[in-house]
Design goal:
5 helices, alpha+beta, 38% strand, six-stranded antiparallel β-sheet
């Protein structure tokens, strides 16, 4: 598979000519040519196929991808190191009461829709932890997603095999000194939007956005496991570890 970029499509044609191609049902490995966003899209596309995904980078960052090279593809795949990831399952309830379900391999984020700050109540496993958070938003991240939006919001980097989720505020105004929390992977987190009519909030699970929500429930779904493959010596856990020592 390839993203819509001209470079990725050109590489796809060359790889087809060199190695051939089969349908997803017959494939042993899915090869994804694109950036990190395309890797997330590919994970969602092949959710029920049970095939590992090996990405090669044609994006700007490529944290979830391998370096693109046409040569020795079979050898690279044979030596590749797996990283298993589980998605977050989001149920966003809109202001008219409609539930919307989505999965997120990186993070679920809540974002204010207007100039006015959001007001959120945060419950973890049914217990109110923050009665009122005034902020631009908040996100809950998987270990795989902890180096993405979560890191940009000054959240912690999580090792890929950590049984943790990162709960990170985005531009919190009050309480000022709250910088987030580490949650056990089994935690159920509920966000209740206060004054949702005046201060509307959207919920985003990877690339799926739900506007005008009044509550959002998030929990990791360990019944779903996807596998990404990384070149030997450049595993995802090594990349995440190395990211903590970058200037």
């Amino acid at each position: 598979m390839a993203s819509e970029s001209a470079e990725a499509k050109d590489a796809l044609n060359r790889m087809h000519a060199r190695y051939g191609d089969v349908s997803a049902d017959k494939a042993e490995v899915i090869i994804a040519l694109g950036g990190d966003g395309f890797m997330l899209q590919t994970l969602h596309t092949f959710l029920n196929h049970g095939r590992p995904i090996y990405g090669m980078n044609f994006g700007s960052i490529g944290f979830l991808m391998n370096e693109f090279r046409e040569e020795e593809l079979h050898e690279r795949l044979a030596a590749a190191e797996p990283a298993k990831v589980h998605p977050l399952r989001m149920t966003a309830t809109t202001r008219n009461g409609e539930p919307v379900h989505a999965l997120a391999f990186n993070e679920v984020s809540l974002l204010r829709e207007t100039r006015q700050a959001a007001k959120l109540r945060i419950l973890v496993d049914g217990k109110v932890r923050i009665p009122e958070l005034i902020c631009d938003g908040i996100l809950i991240s998987t270990p795989a997603g902890s180096t993405a939006y979560n890191l940009s919001a000054h959240g912690p980097i999580l090792p890929i095999d950590a049984d943790l989720l990162a709960l990170t505020p985005i531009s919190a105004f009050r309480p000022r000194r709250w910088h987030g929390a580490l949650l056990p992977h089994r935690a159920h987190t509920r966000f209740e939007i206060m004054d949702a009519g005046k201060r509307p909030v959207s919920a985003v699970a990877d690339d799926k956005e739900v506007r005008d929500v009044r509550a959002v429930d998030v929990a990791e779904d360990r019944s779903i496991t996807m596998t990404m493959l990384f070149d030997q010596g450049h595993s995802l856990d090594e990349r995440i570890l190395a990211e903590q020592f970058v200037d």
